[in-house]
Structures are given as structure tokens and as C-alpha cells.
Fold this sequence. Notes:
The structure holds 2 protein chains of 2 kinds. Chain A has 8 helices and no strands.
Amino acid sequence: MLNRLTYLATSIIAGYKIANGMDTYSDLTTAFYTVSFGVLLLACILLLLMGFEIMENDYVAIVTSLIPITLSLGLATDKLEQPQIFIAVIGIGFFVAMVVRLYGKNKISALSLGAIHFLAGSVIFLLPLFLFCSGKTGYKILAISLGGSLIGITGILLGLNKLNKFINLKEKIYEQFPLILFMTTVLFVFGLSEN
Amino acid sequence: MKIISKIKGSLAIYRPLIKSLQTGLLLITGITGYASARCPVMNWSTLLGLTVSLFLSISGSTLLNMWYDRDIDAKMNRTKHRPLPSGKVSPKEVLIVGLLISGIGVSLALSMSLIFGIVVFAGLFIDVVIYTIWLKRKTAWSIVWGGISGGMPILAGRALGMGEIDVIGILFSLAILLWIPTHILTFSIKYFEDYKRAGVPTFPSTYGEHKTRIIIALSSLGAAISIALVAYGIGLSWGYLRLFAVLTVGIIGLAFASVFKPSENVNFGLFKYASLYMLGSMLLVIFGTLF
């Protein structure tokens, strides 16, 4: 019951951000953040309704990879003066991963998706740190780095678990997953409230 | 103390008989229709009248359905424990209560506004007479009439707010009509054997599961387009439209997943998501018009 309430709270926060928290962004940034928080919202609702079984679905893995990818693209278009190269690299990489997957080369697809994931995660973690250290923004933006680390580490542990590096880790992560998702969402929303 | 425990006992019996969740959802659609008219929603007496009359007429029609379908319910595992087939309440009592509260609900609606009352009565009549008594046991297509009656509360609410039946009200009703198959057909896939045992024709038993899933996907798409037109037509802000688009991606994604990657989990997930989607869309319209 507590897990369900946590998922519900997370989806409400993500929904609030989509409906009311994007007035100051450009259209492109708004579109990227909408996809990011939208996928987060839908993931929470599906976890609430269908349980962890959906996490095992390959398509869900691809769709949820849109969360860090579009969040990093949103950050890049919002905060960088010339985000074009980053957009191109991420866009091409994601396109390649999808096309390769269509042809059944799952390992290559997973590798290219992993590489984009890493790139996006690095931007989510490092860009806010850089902006804060260079005095361009206030401290709130650091929450994005923190949220990115939290979900990033969780993702890495789940990935390693898939490779059988740890035993019974999946259950332990799943136990804490609602709280991790909630904390991550709160940190992202708080961090993005920094202009 | 005796009276309190008697009331508690009656509530325990009548709550499942009026399908409280379904009634609640239809009630919210009615309030949404009214709120969408951008009339003075803070007119508490009208809002209270709308809520009470819709609650009574929806609950009344559900009671009458339960009364008429008690023989079917007794044959289905899912419903055989309901108060009527399990003998917790007499059919005569349910019939009387159903007729009484339906009558009060429609009378109250008519006293508030003629057009509101007519639409409320139409919903009740279509649901009880055309859907339940006439068609439900004869054809799988009866759900179209179930859908039309399901679209009446929102049309009634809109008509009360506007004083007339307008295009937005019709689109609202169409959205509910097209949403109903997602709600009912996913359910009839899950409880296929139950419906078969009771002899109730359903889309899965008449046209097969795959065609049913395609119909679910197409009707979900149609419902989403109808609500999108309404949301745009009543002038919701971009923020609310974005959120609505996200929720819509969810229902269409699940509906098409159930066609191309069918599984029981996806099917029942879609059933649950469809209810949440409708509730979410209605709340978006209410919040979007109020704030």
C-alpha cells in the first residue's frame, strides 16, 4: 500500500511539473522535459497498476531510457549556448539503437543504448555541477546531479544484476525502488526550479 | 445503536450493488461536463443538485440492472457472491429501492432544468431498458448502448451548465462511448469463461480475442481523439494539454501493446489504466477550467 501511494505521489509530482512547471522554457526544452517527466509519470502509473513484471519487458527498458536521454537534452537546450552537437550525437545514437534492434541485433542495440545512456547520465550529473561551480546558477540545480546519481546508480546495479554479478540484489532494489523514484523525481523538479 | 448497525449493514449490502467505483467515475464525468461549461461552478446549490440527482439516478439504474441480471450473476464466479445472487437481500427490496431512487434522481434533475432532466432520464432508460433488458442477452453490440448511456451523465452536466446540448457535450459523450469498449471488452476477455457460462454474448466469444483487441485499440484511439478535441475546444492551457497528451500516449500504447504483444497482464493493466485515464482526463478538464 505504501509503495502504491509513493508511486501515486511520484506521478502527481511529475504531472504537476508537466502541467504547471514549464512556463519559462523554450518550446524545444519544454518538449524534451515533457517526454522525460511524461515517461516517468507513465512508468509510475504502470508500476502502480501492473507491478514489477513490466520491468522485465524489453520495450519498457527502451522507453524508460528516454527519461535520462530527454532530460539531458532538455538541460542541454536550456543551459548550453550551442547544444546542437549534443542533440545530434544523442539523436543519431538513439536512432541507430532502434534500427539495429528492429533487425534483431539486440546486443549491438543494448551497447549503443548503453553508450547514449552513459552520455546522457554524464550530462545530467556534470552539467549542473559545472553551472553551479562557474557561478552561472544557484545551488538548487545541484539537486539534478543528485537525482541523476541516485537513479543512475540504481540503473547500473540493476544492469549488473542482469549480468549475474550480484545475487538477490534485484529484490532488494525493487523493495526500495518506489522511494528511489520518488526522491529522484522530487530532486529533478526541485533542481529544475532553478532558473 | 441498533439503528446504526442496521444502517451499516445496509450500506455494506448496497455499496457493491450500486458499483460504487463505477458510479463514482460516472458522477465525476457529470461534474466535469458541468465544470467545463465555465459557468459559475461555485454555485454550490446547483452543483449539489447535480451531484445528488446524478448519484441517485446512476445508482438507481445500477440497482435495476443488478435486479434484472441476478440470474446471470448467479452463474458467474466473479459475481455469484454479490448480495442478490447470494441471498443477502431480496430482489423485491432492490427493485423497490432502485425504482424509488431512480425516480427521485430524475425528478430532482427535471426540477433543476428540463434539458438536464431529459438527458438524465434518457441515460437511465437506455441503460436499464435498451441495454440491460432488451439487448444484453441478445447481441455483443449491446455495449454500444451501454456506452451511450455511460455518456449521458457528462452530457447532462454539460447541458445543465450551458442550457443546451452543444458540440462539446456531444464530443464528451462520444469520448465516453468510445472509452466504454476499452473498459468492458478488456473485462470480457479476462472473464471469458464466466460470460460464456452465463450465456451472455460478448465480442471475444462472437468475434474472437484478436479482433476484440483491435476494436479495443481503435476505440481507445477514438476516445483519446474525442477528449483531445474537447480539451482543445474548451481552451485548456498548453500545460494541461501536454499532460493530457502524456496520459493519452499511455492508453494508446497499452491498447496497441495488447494487440501486438497480448498477455493477461497487459490486458488487465489496460483495463485498470483506462479507468485511471478517464478519471485523470476528467480531473484535468475540471482543474484546467477552474484554474
